[in-house]
Amino acid sequence: MKQVAILGATGSIGASALDVVARHPQRFRASVLAAYRSVDALVALCVRFKPDLAIIADPACEPALREKLGSAGLATRAASGSAALTEAATGDLCDTVVAAIVGAAGLESTLAAARAGKRLLLANKEAVVMAGPLLLEALRAGGGPIIPIDSEHNAIFQCLPSNPSNQGHHSDLTAAGVQRILLTASGGPFLGKRRDELGAITPDQACAHPNWSMGRKISVDSATLMNKGLEVIEAHWLFGARADQIEVVVHPQSIVHSLVEYADGSVLAQLGNPDMRTALAHALAWPQRIEAGVAPLDLLKLGQLNFQAPDRETFRCLDLAYAALAAGGTAPAILNAANEVAVAAFLEQSLPFLAIAELIEQTLAAIPATPVINLESLIYADLTARQQARRIMQRSFC
Ligand code: NAD
Ligand code: MG
Fold first, then answer.
1. Distance between Cα 303 and ligand 1 center (Å)
2. How confident is the model at residue 163 (pLDDT cuts 50, 70, 90)?
3. Interatomic CA distance for residues 393 and 363, integer angstroms
4. Residue with the nearest Cα to atom 27 of ligand 1?
5. What three-state secondary structure class fits 289?
6. What does the pLDDT read at residue 171?
């Protein structure tokens, strides 16, 4: 029986993870559930899953959480704050951690779970983008497996020969005969649109993804193609692929989740309906296979699968991410921080859609990248980039 901590339990990935857990009560138990501020949603999950511990990240919400758990007659303990998240990710209550907090807020608990040798199911791509070298080091120290949840990286993991990332070590792609990684992208809700059609985009339009139902931050990232940019950096760290070995291919149906090209000309792909429960079931049970509740793929009904090049002129975030990867050091953390500030402002309707890329570009230009030394220096780089992005936003876009 695996004891599973779900950090970000009230989110979209959290819901998919809990759906798979609920299908296999003899294999998995949700022992820790954590959320940001949504006390009622967290208590509802506690009523259903009866975890040992419920964590609300915002300490101001802890009294309400404790009271509501009590009046529901639950034995679940209540805790709050980022230290409680880190403790839960490293402590005895779990052997598996689903890292499904959105954004830099998930960094410390993700690194802590890796260092503690937990089985790490990684959805929180921002953590690996920010702290790739630190995550690899933590995985080496902890010795536990990392299994990507991001559908593309989960697909690549499935297509690589011996699951080289399973112990968190850099794989030698060349020795494995791997030539390239082909990351598929849906293209998002604005596929085929030109820049002059994107001036007045609203948050709801940006969040209306054609194939996936996801949290609002990643939905906006999908609309700008920054999501794919973050995923290029994620693939670099998780699989040891150079930037020039990672190619982005737009595939509007989101059926081929990614591909691996080998030296002999073979290309292996993983296919399936766009439902995150496949990746979660794969990662929870790996190396076994279990039922996920996902409808079987009906290729005859689909008829065709299409592929095209990304429009890098209209969706400039993709190249900004490649540039940050090439710059190295803290550049990806700066890119991520500026993107988080820009997306939050766009969702609050205080920044136009097209200004997201501009704000990120100007923030990257304003702050020199430095080597990633440790967590403290990285958090400092993240804060500095956020401040800089806000200053540029005030000056140029408000
Ligand atoms: P979401 O917004 O639906 O859920 C986010 C979760 O994180 C919620 O439970 C929320 O309470 C929690 N959270 C937010 N801020 C927090 C904070 N400061 N401290 C602690 N907890 C906090 O997001 P999501 O779509 O589930 O995405 C989660 C992560 O998974 C993101 O990194 C995203 O890029 C990645 N991901 C998501 C999908 C998807 O299909 N949704 C696919 C691939 C990768
Ligand atoms: Mg993805």
1. 33
2. low
3. 10
4. 102
5. coil
6. 63
The per-residue DSSP string of 45-80 comes to HHHHH--SEEEESSGGGHHHHHHHHHHTT---EEEE
- Counting from 1 in the atom list of ligand 1, the atom nearest the Cα of 214 is 41
Estimate the crossing angle of helix 375-392 against helix 331-347, to 10 degrees: 40
151 alpha carbon to ligand 2 midpoint, in Å? 5
CA proximity to 124, closest of 146, 100, 150:
100
DSSP-based three-state secondary structure for 5:
strand
In this structure, which ligand is nearest to the CA of 84? 1
Angle at which helices 125-142 and 107-115 cross, to 10°: 20
Average pLDDT, the chain: 96
**68-77 average pLDDT score:** 98
Tell me the two tokens of residue 380: 């400092």
Q: What percent of the chain has pLDDT over 90?
A: 95
Question: Which ranges in the chain belong to alpha helices (H)?
Answer: 12-23, 39-49, 62-71, 82-90, 107-115, 125-142, 151-159, 203-207, 216-224, 226-239, 277-285, 299-302, 317-327, 331-347, 355-366, 375-392
Q: How far is the CA of 242 from the centre of ligand 2 (A)?
A: 19
Residue 164: pLDDT above 90?
no
103 CA: nearest ligand 1 atom: 32
**Can you list the alpha helix ranges (DSSP code H) found in 50-189?**
62-71, 82-90, 107-115, 125-142, 151-159
Mean pLDDT value across residues 141-165? 90
Pocket of ligand 1 (CB under 6 A): 8-14, 35-36, 38, 57, 100-102, 105, 123-126, 150, 212, 214-215, 218, 276
Q: What is the Å distance from ligand 1's center to 321 Cα?
A: 20
